[in-house]
Amino acid sequence: MPQWRPPSDHDAAERARAWLAAQHNQAHAEVLQLLGEAPTEAISQALDSLTTAELRDLQRHITSAAQHWRHQPDGTADGL
Question: Minimal CB count within 10 Å: which of 2, 29, 33, 45?
Fold first, then answer.
């Protein structure tokens, strides 16, 4: 029976990246679901809890994605 060896640094880094990607994907899906289902007042209340910098970052990301989306000839946005 082979002796157990701890994972290499590369293996550990790959696992960490995979875990972070899964966490990101889950959070992304949950936020999209909430934005589609939550009342506007609830979304506004949540946005009020963000700092000005966080709100500006969010605005910048949404504006950029919307502009990218509008410039797709077939109505789809690659990479979003």
Answer: 2
Q: What is the CA radius of gyration of the chain?
A: 19
- How far apart, in whole angstroms, are the C-alpha atoms of residue 39 and residue 37? 7
pLDDT digits (tens, 9 = 90+) for 3-29: 888 889 999 999 999 999 999 999 999
CA–CA dist 58, 56 (Å, integer) = 5
Measured between alpha carbons, how far is 35 from 43 in angstroms, rounded to an integer? 7
User: pTM value?
Assistant: 0.68
